[in-house]
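>> Question from a student workshop board

For tomorrow's exercise we were told to take the sequence and the ligand below, predict the bound structure, and bring the output to class. My setup keeps failing. Could a helper post the expected result so I can at least see what it should look like? The ligand is N-carbamoyl-L-aspartate.
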Amino acid sequence: MTLKGRSIVSIGDLSRAEIELIFRCAERFAAQPRGQTHLGRGFQLATLFFEPSTRTRLSFESAMNRLGGAVLTVADGAQSSASKGETLSDTARIVSAYADVIVLRHPAEGAARVAADAAGVPVINGGDGAHEHPTQTLCDLYTLGQECGKIEGLTVTLYGDLKYGRTVHSLAYGLALFGGRIIFAPADPALAPPAYVLEELRTVYGVEPEWWDPNDGTPMPTADALYLTRVQKERFSGSAAGTREYPRIDKAILKRWGVPDYTVLMHPLPRAGELDPELDNETRSAYFRQAAYGVPVRMAAIALILGIAEEEWASGWGGRHGATPGQGGALTDAHATTEFSAAGLSCANPGCITNREPGSAERRFVLASLDPSRGVRCRYCDAVVRASVGESPFGADERDATAKALLTGALLEYAPLGAAD
Ligand code: NCD
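>> Workshop helper replied:
Here is what the output should look like for this input. Compare the format with yours to find the bug.
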């Protein structure tokens, strides 16, 4: 098992054992006095941020500085050559010549996968549109481990904007990987998780999430943690923006919901009025600790990707969080299936990088599961395009005979699933 040279685009790129390895290293870094590490000397980390950030960018930069390495930053993508029309794949390729690892944040779903394909060095997804934010999930799972004493089998309620909240999508997969019980609690029915996330949970992780309606007066099911999120206003188009405000969570609401004192309160931050500061000093409120763990967790991820973590740190992971050394994740057939491109087949998600920046990458798909009737999903943003029985849409220039053999006769019409709903 090695993370050396690997990109982290989705939390699904990591097995459970690899995540536990990162946590083992993170615990070692957390225990070190500041600035005492020189493992990263001579290495460069580039942060390319095309969307605002405080925690993610600065904790990555702090992590690299504390490893003794150096940092190159584009804090505002509008200031880069993207404003002159350079494609993301060109930018990623160019920056690979200047840095040993790239952290990318971008408004288009699937952008990090495009960059990872084009770059000659590992790419870490620092958030791609409404899609995923895997290193936030590493911080979240690490926090759960620190607060609850284990990660395995926890029950976590995910509340708020579950439609556009990328941290929630990655965290749901991460919890599933650790045998967790996921309770989705959208603040408003219009903010429920996209269908492709539910599909991925079912077909890839074999998990059926539960639901709780925070507005119908029923108490919240007992949970180890309540993960709050802000409304992602910047991702609403037009007049829908601002109509999805939800109430400020305070002591009174938590009491009304029947949330016990032992339920850990988490939030990826920033908050935008939905989390009352009166909760900040309560023992159960873990969100500032959660943000602080960003440094050791990201130090560990960088060090393992660069292959500079001390060997003895990486070995001997005894399983404080319930690990079984060498155990892979729950990933099943979907991540192993054949990739293909097909004439006339494009991603149904308008926010996908392949639609927002068509020149950046060839449109490619994978089967959503080995059952072709479940549809195909975009290689970059995971949006599922549902297929129904009938004739193949493949044109003469389709590349992959295996995919064609699997799909021919199984597809007639495509209806978008999950991207725009
Ligand atoms: C999150 C993000 O950018 O997705 N922030 C973070 O990285 N901690 C959450 C958010 O912006 O709401």
